[in-house]
Amino acid sequence: MTLNIKHTQCLIVEDDPFKMDSIRAHLKSFFSEKIEIEECHALATASFALTISTFDLAIIDMSIHSHEPEAGAGSPFPLSSGGLDVLFEIESSGSNTSCIILTQYPDIPIEEVPIPVELAQQEILEKFGIKIAGCVRYVEDDNRWKAEVTSILEKL
User: Fold this and answer.
1) How many CA atoms, within 13 angstroms, populate the side-chain half-sphere of residue 113?
2) 124 touches 79 (CB < 8 A)
């Protein structure tokens, strides 16, 4: 799918600036710059982006903040399963967005139970009926995540 379209609309939900830079660079390289990226650093901004735009691809971190830090808005709080909320919103929208989970943690909390990253795709399908393209563990200074994301993208 993604290789056959002229321009890919992508949502990246990630609150770590270094990881965001790495993901953005890898996607731009893979898509030969034929990609438009919307960057969200928190659940609230991702939710808003999903109400006003449709995306072909979403790269989602599972542990994100509730909202962007803003003066007078209260401190954002971490949501260890905030990425699941993004998946639920994408699923309920009826869009045809291909989703890839990219997390730096070895486990993803699903209903408060830590599920190893390599088993999370099947667990999310079985528990919630949400089909995702893949789950990848991001390890800084290790390029395996890029190879895994590339492999998933090539199958879309």
Assistant:
1) 7
2) no
CATH architecture of 2-141: 3-Layer(aba) Sandwich (3.40)
Give Cα 120 distance to the centre of its chain.
14
> What is the total residue count of the chain?
156
**Cα of 16 vs its chain's centroid, Å:** 12
Q: Where are the chain's structural domains? A: 2-141
Give the residue carrying structure tokens 């994408």: 90
pTM (two decimals): 0.89
Strands 35-40, 78-79: pairing kind = unpaired
Give per-residue pLDDT as tens, 33-67: 799 999 999 888 999 999 999 999 999 999 886 75
Query: From its phi and psi, is residue 19 left (phi > 0), alpha (psi between -120 and 50) or beta?
Result: alpha
